[in-house]
């Protein structure tokens, strides 16, 4: 029974820590597919933007995510065409507002979720785990029934927080 609760606890921590990342990448893949369709449509309509960046530096440069995607001034863009001429890179692209919103939301969630020092978070997790095992061992020593142990654990779930 202890192993079951330990595994359940580890799974819940994993989901809390990694759930945002998994969901973010899933949504990002869906948005990329939708953007590819939108790019084809925009090419037909002519709704594209063109940027010119100097290869010598000195000016603000985009942050490349991969060969076909970059971020510039907080906005995500999908590349349609790029070419290099006379020491400059010419990029024809479309703005990806949905992915920009997704990335902004992801940054906000991870900032809010992981705010504070890592020592404080680690201390809180250790308190949670030690309280959980202390209550289980007390229940075993007193030979309490499983029902009483569960009731004791979940009566005041935040007793470990000071």
Features:
single chain, 162 residues, 5-stranded antiparallel sheet, disordered C terminus
Describe what you observe in this structure:
This protein is α+β, with helices and mostly antiparallel strands and 162 residues long. It has one domain (2-115). The chain is 59% helix and 20% strand. It has four helices and five strands, in the order αβββββααα. It has helices spanning 2-45, 97-113, 118-141, 146-155, and strands at 49-54, 63-66, 69-72, 75-85, 88-95. It has a five-stranded antiparallel β-sheet with strand order 1-5-4-3-2. Strand 3 (69-72) and strand 4 form a beta hairpin. The longest helix is centred in the first third of the chain and has 44 residues, at 2-45.
Structure summarized in a few sentences:
This protein is of the alpha+beta class and 162 residues long. The protein has one domain.
Question: Which spans have pLDDT < 50 for at least 5 consecutive residues?
Answer: 135-147, 158-162
Rg computed from alpha carbons, rounded to a whole number of angstroms: 25 Å
Distance between the termini: 28 Å
Global morphology: elongated
How is the main sheet built?
5 strands, antiparallel
Percent strand equals 15-25%
How many domains, in number, for the residues? 1
Question: What's the SSE blueprint?
Answer:
Blueprint: H1 2-45, E1 49-54, E2 63-66, E3 69-72, E4 75-85, E5 88-95, H2 97-113, H3 118-141, H4 146-155
Antiparallel strand pairs: 1-5, 2-3, 3-4, 4-5
């Amino acid at each position: 029974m202890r192993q079951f609760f330990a595994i359940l606890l580890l799974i819940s921590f994993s989901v809390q820590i990694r759930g945002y990342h998994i969901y973010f990448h899933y949504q990002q893949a869906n948005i990329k597919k939708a953007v590819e369709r939108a790019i084809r449509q925009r090419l037909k309509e002519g709704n594209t933007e063109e940027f010119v960046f100097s290869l010598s530096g000195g000016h603000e440069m985009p942050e490349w995510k991969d060969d076909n995607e970059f971020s510039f001034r907080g906005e995500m863009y999908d590349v349609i065409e790029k070419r290099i001429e006379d020491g400059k890179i010419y990029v024809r692209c479309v703005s990806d507002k949905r992915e920009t919103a997704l990335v902004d939301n992801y940054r906000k969630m991870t900032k809010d979720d992981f705010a504070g020092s890592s020592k404080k978070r680690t201390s809180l997790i250790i308190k949670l785990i030690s309280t959980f095992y202390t209550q289980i061992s007390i229940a075993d020593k007193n030979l309490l029934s499983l029902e009483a142990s569960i009731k004791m654990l979940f009566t005041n779930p935040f007793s470990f927080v000071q």
